[in-house]
């Protein structure tokens, strides 16, 4: 049995231009999620809050499947549609983050004094199949960082953007209609193609990701102000999740803070009985991978086939193209 240490921190700020914070975040019991209420819609704050409540209920379940997560999204979708009708418009929110497939081996959590820090221990057997679901609807994002080869620090150059924005800009890039540089000039970043509460419905993205590393979950108030290279450099420069979220939010505010900004940093590290990184586990684990889960698949359907391996490699090689 290997002990994995899960350390996380959350920070949300209204920013320098908005009067209300429509972002919210959740950390706890193997579920880490950021929701960003739609500023142009009605009741964005309530839409994000209600969606988070649905996922908080899911966090109480010891095991989670794609079907359960999908049902949670659908419940949030229907509630948000009703909320929009209540207010005579469209209410909406993005949602992205990490959901542990099997939380039954998690030890009791211990929160920091401010209520935003989190530490938990996860018992992990090699080959037990436990992984993260990474989920996304909208243009909030989830990233991953690995360790340097000697294990002494986080490696900025290892940044991978796991999620793909559901936005008009990303759409024209993905279809090849425009090169990224041209799309950035001609297509507004904030035109999104999916959100919880969209009248035309939602199709959440699901990814399977290996457990270890540093994960950064954020609203677009971060990545709209600073590019991926800056996110990587700042996140890698701080050893603790709390210091990392503080620095990332501060950077977004210093860059203009034109939107609400919410950041969660989750570190998952292997440790020996003395809470130190073991020799075998030190360093940047080159075997870390993630893969997008197809519509008719779940995590246990995407283990070994050639097609899935190719899809994983493609996802990893494309990750560097997601930045601004």
Automatic annotation (TrEMBL):
It comes from the Bacteria. Residues 7-268 form the PPM-type phosphatase domain. InterPro entries: PP2C (IPR015655), PPM-type-like_dom_sf (IPR036457), PPM-type_phosphatase-like_dom (IPR001932). PANTHER family: PROTEIN PHOSPHATASE. This is Serine/threonine-protein phosphatase.
